[in-house]
Write a structure and sequence with these properties.
single chain; 210 residues; mainly alpha; Rossmann fold; 11 helices; 2 strands; 53% helix; globular
Amino acid sequence: MDEKYICEIKALFPNIKLIFIARELVPRAWSALLMELRNSVIGLEAGVFETSDNGSITNSNSSRNKREMDKLEQQCNPNQYDDSYFMDRLMHSTHTSRCNYSKSLRLWLKHFPKEQLLIINYKDISNKPRSVLKQVCQHINIDYESFIDSIDDEKLQERINVGKTKEIIRPTLLKKMEDYLKHFTEDFNELLVELGYTWKLEDDYDNTIK
């Protein structure tokens, strides 16, 4: 985000509570690259979405026939593109800026005290959702005990709007992505230590569909 907008937010909401969810950089970047590829194939601009419930490409007015849909799905298959395609896109400023968690957060911390910022480990949302809810409630200063206790475990584990299609990153591309993103992970982990957090992001990726 441009710093001028952060300054505007500070002026309008000086006591705002900020929450940042940090996901491992390789899966975050891979997800963004696949979304960008799908959007590019169907001619959509960045930020415009057109997907079905199962994550495959569709058309809201059902004007595309099956042959067209099959062709689009084939064009969106990442195996049709070599490593250099994805690495060129990853190195584009759009993706690089989104991977640089540390730089972005330090910009916010220039204008807001660290006490107004909560950083959540993305994995904890699945692994310990009740703990995450407690952290959020404490951060925004609301009574959490009765609220959290009223939610059963099954509801807490429920996943909403989950994409059903997943693509494994081929080993050659995975290694290149890990090498490129490693220093962003290291910078962010250093910031976590500075802010007093005891967890960190991993710099390698378990390339397994779960």
